[in-house]
Amino acid sequence: MESEWTRFGKTRRWVIGMVVAALIPVLAGLTLVATSRATCGTQTTEEPCPAPILGPSGQAVEDRFYFVHQPLRGDGSITARVNGMTGRIKEPPPPGAGAGPPPVPGLVPWAKAGLMVKDGVRQGARYAAIMVTAEHGVRMQHDFTEDVAGSAGGYPRWLRLTRTGDTLTGHESADGEQWTEVGRAYLGGLPDTVEIGLFAASPGALTMAGGGPESRFSEATAVFDQVSPLQGEWKTDDIGVQMEPDGVTPHHPGALSRSGGTFTVTGTGDIAPSTDQQPIERTLIGVFLGLIAVIVVAVAFGTADRRRLVPKAVVIGTVAFLSGVIPAAVVVPIALRMLPSNGIHPLPVGLLTHLQVIVGTGLLYAAVAVLSLGIGALFKRAAVGIVAAVVVAFVPYALALAGLGEWPLAVTPAAGFAIQQSAREYAHVEGFYIAVTGYFPLAPWAGFAVLCAYAALGLGLALVMERRRR
């Protein structure tokens, strides 16, 4: 082991190669951070983009819906029948058609309407809701990220939401007589007085355009009756509504139409985690070029002397880990501090996720280095080994980005890039969860495990070949 450390340290081209592997992500990342700018505004004004709305756990959320509510002090419940839901969707305009045709009748799959208890009307405040959706049946959701499925739905559908202390319980019924519990939500620290009522929301209709995913206007209209309790003053709030350039007129406002005990509620937007922000790993764009430098050094290290491969793997893995984790530890904190002042707000995630991205970058370097070492020892020739390692590490990723499916990122060494993913996929949020938008088919550590398996296989085959040569 000591002799391999000494040999590596005395070979200047290998040391320089690993320094280059570390410098590339730093220079590329800091250049990106320093030069990136984003503004938001109207046709006449531009201003810095606002920070995302944060939910109870500090995650970025969408909190846009129409709320018909009244205060609830202490324990209590609300019951209502949802008689039906209709909606409108803005279709993509034909090429060169400008704004395109007016909205057409229809509902997006996650259009929703139901009952809600919310800690006031502030965006991002805690809540629990039971709802009927357009295509996903009855759901019990709370605090944006939590979702429990009920029945397949259908109309009419009775819903009930009950508060007992900090616990909210959702029930559903097909006839208003036989009730089935859908789920429970514990909202610790909920104040004595909350808002309780009816709501409607409709996420944007998603399409994949040339520049990436696009969200188009949609709205949902639900008809409620058999509301209990019916007495009391009902207030309305268009939570999160945006204004037209005049600053006064709501853009795509919601609405309430009431006739006796029948409430017709129209809303747009969503109540869910946000997937709009850029994940912080996007600042580590230099990792790909840095990995090429790692591959070159690791293959050369493996072909220089094909003996003592295990000590070599320890040496190259350790050096590569440091060459990856150090630049990530420099770029990520600087990006988190500087990008918001440039109008760019990275996707908020917890400390453990930031550590996963930083340490995971080092582990990615290390695993690719060990895999490349094994490939170099197998092929004997450095040039052939370098080409083979680059193909194995990067071509599957390129195939996935080219739209040939997600399987290359699940069954090849390229699955290891998932260790850098900070964005989370949510089953109750419609989105394009594909490689081009930064999502991998495997969880971060599962994807990294696939890469490690290939690294172990490559090193193991090289060891077998070494023993046969003796």
Automatic annotation (TrEMBL):
Domain of life: Bacteria
Keywords: Membrane, Transmembrane, Transmembrane helix
Ranges annotated as spanning the membrane: 283-301, 313-335, 355-375, 382-404, 442-464
Protein name: DUF1349 domain-containing protein
Protein's organism: Nonomuraea endophytica
